[in-house]
User: Fold these one by one.
Assistant:
Number 1:
Amino acid sequence: MKTKAAVLTGLNQPFEILELDLDGPREGEVLIRFVAAGLCHSDLHLPSGDLPSRLPIVAGHEGAGVIEEVGPGVTKVKPGDHVVCSFIPSCGVCRYCSTGRQNLCDLGEFLLDGQMLDGTFRFHHEGTDVGGMCSLGTFSQYATVSQYSVVKIDESIPLEKAVLVGCGVPSGWGTAVNTGNVRAGDTTVIFGAGGLGMNTVQAAVHAGAKNVVVVDPQEFKRETALKFGATHAFADAAQAHEAITEMTRGQMADQALVLVGTVDETVVQSAFSAIGKGGVVVVTGLGNMEHLTVHVSGAELTLWEKTIKGSLFGSSNPQYDIVKLLGLYQAGQLKLDELITRQYRLEEINQGYEDLVEGKNIRGVLIHEH
């Protein structure tokens, strides 16, 4: 069949709208008609080369839609089911899945090159195999993906809202409550208040943190963070550090959570300085894989028993946590509608990312036309 998609064909190039050939589902695979896709900053790590990937590749890793067809052996879903895609597939049986760490599933080894789990491709263009980001490619009208990458959801939830729980919401939420272990009464500082960081704010508030401090240079994002429950918002780390020192009487923050669009050495050092004894720095944002971005005092790390750790998908279990978070949305305890600043058509994809880079959006959502 044919499908229109936003494709990256070269580094430092805009996404191109191309008509692709799409193969149907094979063993254990499903065909999805995407209704919506989220515009996440991680997709920009493909054209920048920060995440080295095989090209060409269909971008997009946040997606929600309807199952159109299932291949042999598929048991999780059926045609007509509404689903959200998890950008991390979970097989359920590898070492990590079987010990409750689905976000580290061994099937993640295929994500950057964009092939299916059998090493082949379903997208093609003029005889060339085309990958799908995270083995998905949600910036396509249709895609064939593994059943391990989809989570069935309640059909009453609008897909253009539910799409956000495929990456940005669980990654941000879990950074606070899972990886960072934010608890009632804590002081939590959050670097970056975009599509991930705003959900870290929500989670820290939900967990009962006494002080939720946001650091972001964009006034629009600082104002939005305060509306989402942050207690303080600052334009730079120096201002935040002074305030945290005062509000904690020198004890400093319990957690410093890094969710900026591109992580560098400076923001990690600022986060490390912001935490006190026994505090934890969680790095969720990405940077160039070849750059060494964590440089801190080893003596301070030891003597103050500080911790620095990474967080992938918010240390969540996609098959469980996607449904749980949507349940919180239905109960009015999680904001999704308010995260969406603007909707875009597929042909407006590059404008959407310009808006993201310029700090105009918390989250942009692409609405597919069929």
Number 2:
Amino acid sequence: MEITAAVVPEKLAAFTIDKLELTDPRADEALVRIVASGMCQTDLHGRDGYYDTPYPAVYGHEGAGIVEAVGQSVTKFAPGDHVVLSFPWCGTCPNCRRDMPFHCMRGRELKMGGTRPDGSTLMSKGGVPVYSAFFQQSSFATHAIANERYMVKVGKDAPLELLGPFACSGQTGAGAVLNSMRPRTGDSFAVFGVGAVGLSGLMAARIAGCDPIIAVDVHDARLALARALGATHVINHRGRADVVADIRKITGDGVRFSLETSAQPTVFREAVEALMAAGTCVLLGSARSGTEVSLEMPFLQFGRVVRGVIQGESHPQEFIPKLVDFLMQGKMPVDRMMTFYPLAEINRAAQESSQGTTIKPVLRMPH
């Protein structure tokens, strides 16, 4: 079928709106009409060649929409279902066999390779392949093909255009707190960087009962929003001589948990140094290959834990509906960090996201 999609023709090029052909769903796949898709830095990193995805390519990995057709072996979904498209996993690697699909050892290949696992593409133009299985969805388009395993059914009472970001930034930030840290009521928490991932983590910390909740960023507007969403203290990192000392003035001994989302080595070190003894720092920020940080070994020896987390260590079919429930209960008002753009203005969305003026761009699809 003919669809409209945002195509990146070559590395570092702007998005171009084009008509493409979308293949039919296979037996274990579904055709989904995309209502809206979040945009995050992962999409822009793909555009700019971080992942060696072939070109031309269609990105987008936070799609939410309505099922229009299903393959003959699909049993969990039917036309008309509202769904969020989440991350892929292989199901056979050692981590998948241990029920850790978020740490799938083939995850990068499945997310960034641009094709189905068998090498076939989902989209084409004039018979020429367009690499279009980004996170096995490529949701910067009016329609997408998704495997049943990576789809999450959500209630029809929830606003679909708000739900796509739960597929990545939402479950990454909130999951790092609720699934990985698992704080107790009254545990101290600091988040370094309050973009979409950091704010999701902050709202999860508030749901968990953390206190104090400290937000660190360089944008006053983001810090104001962080305070509105649950931060008890905010620190503007810009021009600050010693952020760690500032945090220790608030907490005394440091924080029980810190969340690092900036991917900057100096900030990562601060997130570690802000820990109390036996505290845990979770790294979420995605740095380029070769980025290094130095940490003092004696400081770590006092029970401090530093670990990376992917996709919020979540099982999407269970966790995303919980996030939707939090949204509907008013506990996770993600709409407050969103700015909506028509698909035709995707380059403006990308620019404003990179400038920091937009926290979470969400693209509405033309239908």
